[in-house]
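Cont'd.
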Amino acid sequence: MSNWALAATLVFVLVTMLLSIKRKLGLEKEIAVGTVRAALQLFLIGYVLHFVFDTRNPALIVVIIAGMITVAAFNAGKRADRIPGIRLRIGATLLVTESLTMGLLLSLRIIEATPQYIIPVSGIIIGSSMIVAGLFLSAMTRELEAARGEIEALLSLGATTRQALRHSARRAVRSSMIPTFDGMKTVGLVQLPGMMTGMIVAGAEPIEAVRYQILIMFVLSASAAITAILLGTVSARLWFTAEGMLRRTGKQA
Amino acid sequence: MTALLTIEGLRKQRPDEPDRSLFSDMTAEIAAGDRVALLGGSGQGKSTLLRIIALLEAADGGRLLLGGKEPRAYAEPKEWRRQACYVAQQPVMLPGSVEDNLRAASGLHGTPFDEALARRLMDAVGLADIGWRRAAADLSGGEKQRTALVRALLLKPRLLLLDEVTASLDPGSKDAVEALLDTWSAREGAACLWVTHDLDQAERQCRTVWFMAEGRLLEVAEADVFFRGPATEQGRRFVRPDAEGRTAGRAEAAADKKPAASLGAGSEGGARA
């Protein structure tokens, strides 16, 4: 892609900006910051990857993945920032999800153990798991208000915190996994996923691109399940105070 | 003898105005098998007090002891809650059938389900004909309230924290529930702390009255003494008969039964000096 073509893509930003001004959406600052950040962050990671691919040092792969997990944990944790210790649990969950899925991909020799494969696939796994974690936390926050009566009825009957939360956690796990499976049902019909599109644009055979996309979709379904269930388990105690009372997560008087 | 429940200097702030107390300096005891009516106008924090005793809400000061032990002396909060069970004013059915609800306590604690007892209790509250396979969510308000009470009794707690549990019942069902609680208390030795706006019920059912007003526990008295003549002016205003021969508290109870009726200014505001 030539520099001219890259610069010309700013026309899309311009269109967005004009629409925002014309419709008085007040998003101009957001658009400008988003544009600059996206470009800078992508170039930065591009140069980092260039360096990592050249040096082929496994420690650098670990550092990059750790960085991805940290940022993802902080980002997803915003959905439940009244719950102390939630970011640590999200980070641990993402680490286990990444280790299990990447471990299987490498040990079954599905992908090559090179930075060119490990880093982009890890990015997709961690990014998708971050969204699942965020959805789970939003669903739990809603559940804790909507199902408060049910949870307290169970506590009153002498349930443990885990028992009291079981129905709510199950509903939250389900609702955080559904978008992943809905995506699997419509992929190729409604949207062509980014990775596949990228490979085709870069000159790969469409069938080869499809093979990789299938791999990614299946890995993402597993990572969604692992993330949602594991986060549901490790976060269970956090929804209660040290005295075992259900926390208030929503806005309250 | 150690009291079953001891409340020492309990204090709770208003959630909307943290510098003001909802109640403070609350000190009282309940002995095993005692039946206490918790009375007072609306907004005095009666339900909040029950929820604090049930460890569903935190107090802002003071101490609670159940069986002589503070909550933190119990291995887990559930050990406390198994003994001091809160039955909410708005009954919540757990997901599933009526039977799932009745089996809740035994399921949670891995104890055998006493089906014969459950049938006797359902019979006693007038729900003998309710199908146990019915979805609990489909029951009427009164049926839910009685099912929730039976579900709590099957836990066999030492202290029942009853929050207006007969508020949505017809007179016949209310009598049945009162009779059951009478028998249950005598048989199991369970104590009750009963929030009610129905002063006739309080007089019939309870040996002791705790009267809350002005953010404090103003009176702790035997029920017949309290109803004969409260020691405080606020208590007298609460139970004094009006021109129609009803007490202010009784007038409030009557107003409570009308679904759309407003509570107005509460018992004290509606009472005459």
